[in-house]
Amino acid sequence: MPKVRTETIKKNGYILEPVLIFFLLGMMVCAWISMMAMEKRELNKAVVRSDFDLKVIEQAKERALELSWLKRCHLENSEGWMESIEVDGISVDLINRKTCLESRYRQKGKTYSILLFYDEQGIVKVEYE
What residue spans define the domains of the chain? Predict the structure, then answer.
């Protein structure tokens, strides 16, 4: 019968230390891969929303510039004015509030709001709520 070294083999007959090390390394690699996949998915969702927000801002910007021109020429008092537009199949409400134009839309159960502040000269600032 061959002689077996007893310092590496435990009572149950398995070599425990190398197996545990490889198991833990495998678990760490799997966790790292899953974290990277989740980050990639979230990043892709943020890119899609960012593209959509830019389209909404572009549409609202046109209307805000028109409203600033009307304000500059004292032609129309359009405070409280509301318009619904459609961007990529999603309904977006544009609401004029004295110094800002609010763009509101609903996507996947959440309501998003973008405020475009304008004056007589044009758009001053954009805020997300």
Answer: 16-128
